[in-house]
Specification:
The chain has 125 residues and is α+β, with helices and mostly antiparallel strands. The chain has one domain: OB fold (Dihydrolipoamide Acetyltransferase, E2P). It contains four helices and nine strands. The strands form two sheets. It has a six-stranded antiparallel β-sheet. β2 and β3 form a beta hairpin. The longest helix has 8 residues. The chain is globular and about 35 Å long. The relative contact order is 0.27.
């Protein structure tokens, strides 16, 4: 299982990559493997400001649909539009080309509440 040490994680299996006051968000390698073959990613919140733990979209696999939760508060400034035509890239490159949204962070202190790679590894066992 791939769990990069330079990212932060949530109990809901999202990852966060920080770049200044912008966070790139996606789902973890563990989450995509549990979901199976991803067939659709829906994000209709671009341009909206959401609080941590609010739903920012959904991801559909062959057998299930799962909500996507904001790890931190902020404005969704970009959606990875490549996922519209190629949602399966989340399965093959969850931490790279499979990113979902970029967020302008509202409250940087919320990052302290996210899980480290070690803590996330313990969570998923």
């Amino acid at each position: 299982m791939n769990i990069p040490a330079d990212l932060k994680y949530t109990k809901d299996h999202e990852w966060v990559r920080l770049e200044g006051d912008t966070a790139t968000i996606g789902i973890t390698d563990f989450a995509q493997s549990e979901l199976g073959d991803i067939v659709y990613v829906e994000i209709e919140t671009e341009g909206e400001t959401l609080d941590a733990e609010e739903i920012f979209g959904s991801i559909e696999a062959v057998k299930t649909v799962s909500d996507l939760f904001m790890p931190i508060s902020g404005e969704i400034i970009e959606f990875n539009s490549d996922l519209e035509a190629n949602p399966e890239v989340v399965n093959s490159d969850a931490y790279g080309a499979g990113w979902m949204v970029k967020v302008k962070i509202s409250d940087a202190s919320e990052i302290d509440g996210l899980l480290s790679a070690d803590a996330y590894t313990e969570l998923i066992g």
